[in-house]
Design a protein that fits this description.
- The chain is 71% helix and 0% strand.
- Helix 3 packs antiparallel against helix 4, helix 8 runs antiparallel to helix 9 and helix 9 packs parallel to helix 16.
């Protein structure tokens, strides 16, 4: 069930009507049933995995709550980690590592019989696994107390707005809102409606209209020029942002209508001037998860400079693998880790620490921001590529073949500009004001003119084919 489909609209209308009529505990029961229906609409068979993860981590959390010997607590934690990551490894990575092992053996002239696991990747498994694991780890660390209510914990894991593509919520944020009665305000509903509308604009007008441009250039059989690679990479940068930030905004807006707040997942990541800032503004729920549960436990920046670089590289490689079981994602993780390490080394170098002004829009800040945007875009080229070979061909084309033609302008430049300009104009204002809710504070005439423009652009030019969100595959 896709947020931008009529199926979801009908589903949410029913859920919202029931929600407003029921008392608190009955609301939770209804939301859990609705969330399981929402997930089962993709493939009911994988609902058992979601329920299994919920049951295991609820009881592990309850076991970890009281004072127990450290060895037993560690055993319980390992049990949870083994179950969750074992399930993730089997369904998401088994075939990848099998194929890699067979290929490695072939390089040495060995022949191996491969065992193939014919399964479909369960949608959202990476998201709800990370949520459930963080709950157990936080209890193990004594950061939170376990909930005594299995239904509340099940709703925390399965809550449908975030279930299949995030944000990756922490129990400290969501569980208290589930456990206590909610009070829905008109201001919260207004914000929710704007976020839903803006998210639909990002997805249906921006991302879905840019997708054909990107797919044509990145097709396995395509042989684009360097200019075509550059333009399609710009298009993908906007597509993936519009797609994923659009999903997050619809999720936040839908949840606001139910009186439940989700965390902000994107904060204008293309307007930053450093790789560290990018990861504080892009997919915030994942980057903070990786920081808190991987990078810091590895040692973070508490050791030597080389140890810090190692920790950055390990974290980003595993973050790349989280996105998908392919060597392109591994390489993307390596690239991001190297970029972060280089930026950290430059910041520590004498004379470079003050390269970018702390505030203002001077030429130096704009130049560094533009450079950072292109560093990010090359990462998106790696991320989107169909194979390692395509990354090599496209990189060579960028360096050696900058030809353009009338066909390039007609096929790429004109639609890219036409789609990007309405989005960028509004987005610049949001970034200037520091909030995606900023348009709601415009003067009345300007505000409703913007609402009408967003609505008409989606209605006239938006894609109503119910295209899946990019992050559903992760």
């Amino acid at each position: 069930m896709v947020f931008t489909s009529l199926h979801f609209v009908a589903f949410f209308i029913v859920v919202y009507a029931l929600y407003r009529a029921l008392p608190h505990r009955a609301q939770n029961v209804m939301l859990l049933a609705a969330s399981y229906y929402f997930y089962a609409a993709w493939d009911w068979r994988f609902l058992s995995l979601l329920v299994g993860s919920t049951v295991v981590d609820f009881f592990v959390g309850r076991y970890l709550g009281p004072a127990r010997p450290a060895s037993r607590r560690r055993t319980a934690l390992v049990l949870s980690l083994a179950f969750n990551f074992g399930m993730l490894g089997i369904f998401k990575y088994f075939n990848f590592f099998r194929d890699s092992l067979v290929a490695l053996a072939g390089w040495f002239g060995w022949t191996m019989d491969a065992v193939t696991l014919h399964v479909v990747l369960p949608i959202g498994i990476s998201f709800y696994t990370f949520m459930s694991v963080s709950y157990v780890i936080d209890i193990y660390r004594r950061d939170i107390a376990p909930t005594p209510h299995p239904l509340d914990f099940a709703l925390f894991v399965a809550y449908f707005p975030h279930l299949v593509a995030g944000p990756i919520l922490r129990a400290s944020l969501l569980l208290p809102q589930i456990e206590r009665p909610r009070r829905m305000t008109w201001a919260q509903s207004r914000e929710g409606l704007w976020l839903i509308g803006w998210g639909c604009f990002q997805k249906m007008f921006v991302a879905d209209n840019l997708a054909p441009l990107v797919d044509g250039v990145f097709a396995a059989s395509a042989g684009p020029t360097g200019l075509e690679v550059l333009l399609s990479t710009y298009a993908f940068a906007l597509q993936i942002y519009g797609d994923f930030a659009g999903y997050s905004n619809i999720a936040r807006g839908t949840s606001k209508l139910l009186g439940i707040e989700l965390n902000i997942n994107f904060l204008f990541p293309y307007f930053v001037t450093s790789p560290q800032a990018f990861w504080r503004h892009w997919h915030i729920s994942l980057s903070t998860w990786l920081r808190d549960y991987l990078y810091i436990p590895l040692g973070g920046n508490r050791g030597t400079r080389l140890a810090t670089y190692r920790n950055l590289l390990i974290t980003m490689v595993l973050g790349g693998l989280w996105h998908g079981a392919a060597w392109t994602f591994v390489l993307w993780g390596v690239y991001q880790g190297v970029v972060l390490a280089v930026a950290r080394a430059m910041r520590a170098a004498p004379g470079l620490a003050g390269l970018v002004p702390a505030a203002g829009l001077g030429w130096r800040r704009l130049a560094v921001g533009l450079f950072m945007f292109h560093v990010t875009c090359y990462g998106w080229l790696i991320f989107r590529a169909e194979s390692l070979g395509q990354i090599g061909r496209f990189t060579r084309a960028l360096v050696t073949d900058v030809r353009g033609s009338a066909e390039t302008w007609a096929a790429l430049v004109v639609p890219l500009v036409g789609i990007a300009v309405p989005f960028v104009v509004v987005h610049l204002y949001q970034a200037w004001r520091g909030s995606e809710l900023a348009p709601m504070t415009l003067p009345l005439a300007a505000r409703y003119a913007l609402y009408a423009a967003v609505f008409l652009l989606v209605l006239v030019f938006g894609s109503f084919e119910g295209a899946q969100f990019i992050y559903f595959q992760f």
